[in-house]
Amino acid sequence: MKGYVMRNRRDFLKAGVAFAGTAVLGLRSQAALIGPKKIPIGIQLYSFREQAKDGFDGIVKKAAEIGYAGVEFAGYGPYWGKAAELKKLLDDCGLKAFGTHTGYGELLGDKLQRQMDFHLGIGCKYMIIPGMGEAQLGTKDACLKTAEILSGVSETVQKSGLFIGYHAHGHDFKKVDGDLTAWEVLFDNTPKAFIHQIDIGNAWDNNDKERPYRMMERYPGRSLSVHLKEHGGPRGAVFGQGDVDFKKVITLSESIGGTTCYIVEHESDPANAFECAKKCLEYMKAL
User: Fold this and answer.
1) What domains can be seen in the chain, in order of their start residue?
2) pLDDT below 70 — which residues of the chain?
3) Residue 284 phi, psi (nearest 5)
4) For 67-100, what is each residue's pLDDT tens digit?
5) pTM
6) Could you say which DSSP state residue 199 is in?
7) Is residue 63 a contact partner of residue 91, using CB atoms and an 8 Å limit?
8) What distance lies between CA 183 and its chain's CA centroid?
9) Integer angstrom CA distances of residue 228 from 122, 143, 184, 267
């Protein structure tokens, strides 16, 4: 759709609410599988936000052309409320919806059923909250209240075979309870079915370089969807040019994470997003 531009994640969400992923991962190509256990790899379409101005369908089709097995959405372009049409687009491209980034408010109250119906209509199972603020995670008490609310939502959606979870950002690792971070308080007080979507690059700390890997170890079986992102290196670094040990991520995902899919996200060079996404995928396939 001409004119649909995803300038930042908030605009992306406003443009069409948000998306979720699937544990039933039918694949278009063996080339989209990585690691000894052949876990499929998808792309977060926010990576293609600049290219979306030339049409939402185009970025979905490009993901397939590059060789990804699926996509994670942070907005639906013209397809919100049109599950059958969106499902057809994915099917025509040979792609699966591995996940969606669905705003916190969209999972509350009367909005939840609308989200559930839409996700079921497109065959998605994972609804991941892309971020929360001080009101939800700013203090220990806020974290505990949010955990209580989301535990209830998790229980509700599981009855329909769906899952919710939370996506990591650097500010989530602010300490709110002694040495415990907001991230840890949230996940310590939510059920195992609440997805621990670690973002390796976002969780990186130059003073604690093991933090992304340690969080995967701390919450075994909960990293059903893992965001692959580089940290450091030259400007616009693609995978293999920075600090992240992607082999270690694969090992942890396969041994303790319970991972069903990887999601590539490359945000640092939006003008060359297609080329960067291709290089990242080629790097992962070569490990």
Assistant:
1) 9-286 (3.20.20.150)
2) 1-31
3) -65, -40
4) 999 999 999 999 999 999 999 999 999 999 999 9
5) 0.90
6) B
7) no
8) 16
9) 24, 25, 20, 11
